[in-house]
DNA sequence: CTGCATCCTAGTCGATACTG
DNA sequence: CAGTATCGACTAGGATGCAG
């Protein structure tokens, strides 16, 4: 396995399907449930404090939230604002760059909410066709 | 339609942000890079054989491809067609349900390809502002 | 060609405790 | 309140090898 592929020429279009394209790395980093849910939550509810975010994205641990939000901040998608008060107040909000992505992520969330009954039904049918088919035939 | 596995009352909308909600499980299952890339690839290139898919989604191992594609099939998003020939020929294609999702996933991929330069630039700036104070290499 | 089974490492993730 | 640090369980996921 080679280790260096950073050599990206400007004339080559970025391609998420290419394993060694920088855009693939960006895609892979964003394509996890916590990052996507955080983006969607910030888009839906607007600026939120750390604890608010942890509540709105139900189930996320502090560690994962910290880590994901850090990555998003580093990538220029999210703005982290620290208010020098006591107790400390830290607010996270979408930057323009992040908003563009978040809008698209939200459509995925909407799709899932609208179609998960169909997905679950399909699953049931799939599993059923497996377990009993052997018996019947 | 047969009864649902999960008791879903109409007055309780599915919510991907809720840790306990069935739709969250569906969301979490789809929110990984291989599933998303496979959906996007099937949308972009149409029906593909196993090996074609492995080539178009560069970097995926046979194991992960098999596993992801199977999950997508189970969820009713992808149709797996086995042609009884020798050597065997298996073709994967999007079902209507999957196409709806894939269309939205593609917009994420497009966004990443269009904006990863900005993301990478933001990263550089972020990292610079952190550690570079002591190292100007 | 497709895909399953096995092994095995390395990273993920949660829980807990601690700091500023 | 908002993190950081550490540990440990877990599993994602790659590398074979084999079978249909």
What does this structure look like?
The structure is a homodimer of 137-residue chains. Chain A is mainly α and 137 residues long. Chain A is built from six helices and three strands. In chain A, 60% of the residues lie in helices and 10% in strands. Chain A has a three-stranded antiparallel β-sheet with strand order 1-3-2. In chain A, a hairpin with a 5-residue loop joins strand 2 (78-83) and strand 3 (89-94). The first copy, chain A, is globular. The interface between A and B is large, with 56 and 61 residues. Chain B binds a DNA duplex (20 and 20 nucleotides) through helix 4.
Give a brief outline of the structure.
Helix content of chain A is 60%, strand content 10%. Chain A is mainly alpha-helical and 137 residues long. Chain A has a single domain (32-129), classed as Winged helix-like DNA-binding domain superfamily/Winged helix DNA-binding domain (Arc Repressor Mutant, subunit A, Orthogonal Bundle), CATH 1.10.10.10.
Q: Number of DSSP helices of chain A?
A: 6
Indicate the mean pLDDT of chain A: 87
Q: What pattern of helices and strands is seen along the backbone of chain A? A: HHEHHEEHH
As for the CATH topology of chain A, it is Arc Repressor Mutant, subunit A
Q: What's the CATH H-level homologous superfamily of chain A?
A: Winged helix-like DNA-binding domain superfamily/Winged helix DNA-binding domain
Biggest interface, CB < 8 A: A-B, 56 and 61 residues
The CATH architecture of chain A: Orthogonal Bundle
- The radius of gyration of chain A is 20 Å
> Order of strands side by side in the largest beta sheet of chain A?
1-3-2
The total tally of domains of chain A equals 1
Q: Indicate the percent of residues in helices of chain A.
A: 55-70%
- Quaternary assembly: homodimer
Shape of chain A: globular
Number of E-type strands of chain A: 3
